[in-house]
């Protein structure tokens, strides 16, 4: 009788888990009232704005004169259409902390301006629409990123100015977005947002459409439901940045564009962009006008216009909303599970798992646990861990071996999907080979014991994550539910479905801007990631063993037959990885052609890449095979020169240095940089080069110890530049100081035209001093 009651409770909990997500998602189902009027938006007119920014102005990095020209052009167009326009200049100090890929702390002064335009309506209720107009580097024309968004916004300004409207529209063109959302952060810190209903951001016009809802905070479910419903009704293929919600919450990076600072201030906001892994033109010289599609501009312009006219948000100004929800997209339908639903599901799955463990304990011999069974449990965990390590190491072996053989760090750059498929194929083949021999090992033959250990393992992981943040636990709770169902229906399919959401999170990461840095981090910290993935693979292996041993008679024959084909597939995949080209037309090799000057010596042109240079380039430049070639520049003066002097005083056994640096240059550099290094800790003070009052939270400039053991800090700034720099340094050691200036190179001495290369042309000046 007791067992039947427990079984009834388990069935009830399982049915509840199926019903609750569907029920709670209805709470947020809100379809907008469609506005079917013709917008009058002209893609051709929007394209003309894009063309002007790209071809007549060119690259527009933050603080540059070309960025200022773009700002003046935007203001002119808006005024012509009857908008009230003002500019918002700013200078902000940004601190780049040390990380895996950035070894030294960097402090930057970034100067730019926002362009703010307003079109008053009959009501003060305000809708903000934004787009950044700066480009990533001195060499990136920024056609798609983000002249395309600016062009759409300027054409929307014309369309909206021709009809009466209730809401007040505010268009904000942000500067210095590429330096880390600097312009939008400054705007939100200064603006009165009490009358704002919601904010829409346009960044990179193209298809398929990304509806970006994830920053440090996430967009309100109410807003997501309306925007996605309108996209579905407009027959627009879209993708909601679902799993990035998990990845970006509480991160230092925050969101990927200028809607994120609005979310931080409690303003409903989201962004429209391009979904998927960025092509090789992203932030590169190849981001030219031919990348911009009139069809995409028209589609996004019409859609944005309908959003502005249709979407309604009840509250005004900063608000609170449920942030730990999870959206699920099925085609054009989006369902949202609020945090309350996640908590209910978590509690129910916990209860279900505990009840099933109790039921198993009462019906098993574990009540009188023998030492042999304890050893058996340890052997099971050890075997699962061993299998996980072997599978991961062998699946990585091909990539690592070919990287070494080809001397290519980013072997997967052009065709990462092939490497992911190969890794999965190799891992599956290795697992099949090992599993075919498992029946000969002295393992415990009780399949339910594998199930118990797997459930306890996942329970522990889920509990820890649930205590940290409830939404982080959801992928593991789903996995735990599948493992619970596997108790009644032992099936390889359920074991494979369990980690579905973890796999999908990796797929989302793979189709993002962060995928390269993610892979580089894995390569830098391979042992750590090996440990993490082994921990995640253990319950997966246990689930497979539970299902496999339960149906051992059926599987033994199939595994034995599959052993040789699996070995052949593994070897074939390992060998075929060497045939995959490292670069393609869409993802070319990045090559830098850099004029380098130092002091008063003759300069040189340095041609280099992170990988070996193509043979044709080496032949054309008469160089040696490798990653770099130097070509001398004779009898020419450098673009700038630097003089430095120092006054020293000793106080309390510390050296107090007043360092004066004079910079003379024929043309203003885009970037100036001062790098200080010492064997001893030091502090820096400078009100000229980096205004100390603008440091976040009165942060002190101090040398940070780097992996080499030395203390260093990098100070840099964008235009306007100064001709003199004064630094006050307090230290006990000798200070090395390098002064650098970076110029754009509009007329390079060496031009490279190689079909599988993307070339950056730069001019750098460096000088070194010791104090």
TrEMBL record:
Residues 114-306 form the Peptidase M28 domain. GO terms for molecular function: aminopeptidase activity; metalloexopeptidase activity. InterPro entries: M28_fam, Peptidase_M28. Keywords: Aminopeptidase, Hydrolase, Membrane, Protease, Transmembrane, Transmembrane helix. It comes from the Bacteria. Coiled coil: none annotated. Pfam families: Peptidase_M28. SUPFAM superfamilies: Zn-dependent exopeptidases. This is Putative aminopeptidase. It comes from Desulfosporosinus orientis (strain ATCC 19365 / DSM 765 / NCIMB 8382 / VKM B-1628 / Singapore I).
